[in-house]
Prior knowledge:
Elements: H1 9-22, E1 29-37, E2 43-50, E3 59-66, E4 73-74, E5 82-87, E6 93-98, E7 107-112, E8 120-121, E9 128-134, E10 140-146, E11 185-191, E12 197-200, E13 206-212, E14 217-223, E15 235-240, E16 246-250, E17 255-261, E18 268-273, E19 284-288, E20 295-298, E21 304-310, E22 315-322, E23 325-332, E24 337-344, E25 347-348, E26 355-358, E27 361-367, E28 374-378, E29 384-388, H2 393-400, E30 404-411, E31 417-424, E32 431-437, H3 451-459, E33 463-468, H4 477-481, H5 490-504, E34 508-518, H6 520-531, E35 535-541, H7 547-553, H8 557-564, H9 572-577, E36 591-596, H10 604-616, E37 621-626, H11 638-653
Parallel strand pairs: 32-33, 32-34, 34-35, 35-36, 36-37
Antiparallel strand pairs: 1-2, 2-3, 3-4, 5-6, 6-7, 7-8, 9-10, 10-11, 11-12, 13-14, 14-15, 15-16, 17-18, 18-19, 19-20, 21-22, 22-23, 23-24, 25-27, 26-27, 27-28, 28-29, 30-31, 31-33
Helix pairs in contact: 1-2, 1-11, 2-3, 7-8
Amino acid sequence: MERDLRDTPAYREAESFFRRALEPGFGKIFDPSDPQPSPDGHWIAFRGERRDALEGHPEGRLCLVGADGSGFRQITNGPHDDDQPRWSPDGMTLTFRSDRAAPGRHQLHELHVDTIGEARALSVVEGVAEQHTWSPDGSRILVLVAGLDAEQSDAVGSGTVATDDDVPPWIPEVESSDRTDDTRRCLCTIDVATGTVVPVGRPELNVWEAVWCGSDRIAALVSDDPGEGAWYGARLVMIDVAGGTDRTILESDVQLGWVRASPDGRRVAIVEALCSDRLVVAGDVLLLDPQSGDVVRVDTAHVDVAGLAWRDDERLLAIGIRDLDSVVLDIDAKTGTAAERWSTREACGVMFTAAAPVGDGFAVVLQSASRPPELVAVDEVGGARTIVHTSHAGSEIIRSSVGSRRRVAWEVSDGSKISGLLTVPAGDPPFPLILAVHGGPVWAYQDFWPGELWALLLARGYAILMANPRGSWGRGREFAARVVGDMGGADAHDLLAGIDHVVSLGLADPERVGVTGGSYGGFMSAWLPCIDRRFRAAVAISPVTDWYSERFDSNLGTWTAEFLGGDPVSRGEHYRERSPVFAAGWNRTPTLLTAGARDRATPRGQAVEFHHALREHGVPSDLAVYPLEGHGVRDLPAGIDLAARTLAWFERFMPPDATAR
């Protein structure tokens, strides 16, 4: 395949599809996220995305809508990215992050709600303002500041939080154990009246999350080392703001996330979960008394909780996943009990699952195969009403690519039940089938809006199976833990059994089966054809193909050792046995591999190694490395190029019927 596809039929078809799907939405808000109700419950501020051209990535804009759906408007205009709206306790000020002064280097700004107009910049912090929250008394703003070289989670693209464009391009990238200040995350407060910036806590602490616990203490998730791998062992501490001292109040043998303190500071809620990626946390809810250290584990009735928000000092709203459903719980903090409030077959959220209390109801973002992400208000009796619609003429291009989507389930040899979603195009089966493997491995597919790449493949006549094998969310920690020490083992056979099931239903052609996925899904897209020769084509995006090099070349080396059950010395054979690069001699599946040059999670060498190994064994393989991308491909036109290559690869080796369009 050529380096430059722009004059090829595949690229022209992909570009035309993207243009028809996206151009009608130019200048309009889509993908609402992070809903933040005002203290009086009358307004909901949220981040929306806006695209104005088929290039780059969508830019964030702050938006405001009445809780009743009235008065929707965009209230910031960038340039660049505006996000993370946060209300002052009196509801008169809305603060947010923006990199309008320097791309990628977010600082805090404020808008006065009674006279919304031009935003005012707050005091500059040294680094990037990554998170912020108001003190309960409204006197200070807590800011989590990331150094310019601090690593980003692979969930949001890997790389570093900012780029340094002020040096000549020949200057090398440098990592040094002597230079860690620019890789750390620390805390400071901004005095609202004076603008004074004051550091908080010991400078040796690296802070991943932090919230006020009352107006004189801070609950923070911290580690001693700033590297991405250190997050997996982070602990919860309580920091005294005035004295700067801290004490540990919770440690775990798995991971912690989504720290939330009650308004009065008497309780702290946190999610404890087995995780494969920072920011991708879903599991058990723990309630802590920060004074006594007492911990209550809430029975969430098999819901893996992925978002928390306090209604008041005694009531906590939780949202999570149970199998394929999204479920909202009310938790009584006094008794530590949870009651199911509402559930839906649709997916909640865009990148992160969240629900925000509004009176006795809540606001949530819903999406499905027939609904692009929209902001929805759910009242006290469970009635749901869309308050921000995002459909436009291009949405129908995506929607019409879906013939139908159904839930499927199958039993595997050990008696486990595995769930998934099968999306088929219009027309008569059997269809050529693409198995889509999710990343993580601790994550899950739900009923998501298809997006341009999936819609393009559906429009060309391919069916897509999205499966949740062991290791996935929604089935409890024990189910997720089954992948630890066995990546590419039983979970791989869960996926193969899913293909068998869809074939047995008469919906898939067993002679035209392909596989694709990113990150861990990229690993599976390289691994499955090494253990099963049914696959006619594979597209592995940002894959792991060599666990040895992933252990030391990746910023996720700590996770690699934990999920493989040890280091390469103690588990050397296992590292080798589960590495696709060492099994390439068994692989006969034509494979397209892609990588981002800026990816620290699954560095480009992972794709390069497997490409060369396949070539040595005479297997058709193409390798595409995107110079400006990190983990995955997120910007246009690189995303169009990826879609064109993916479509061309599948159509070359497992073409759909000639009648597909």
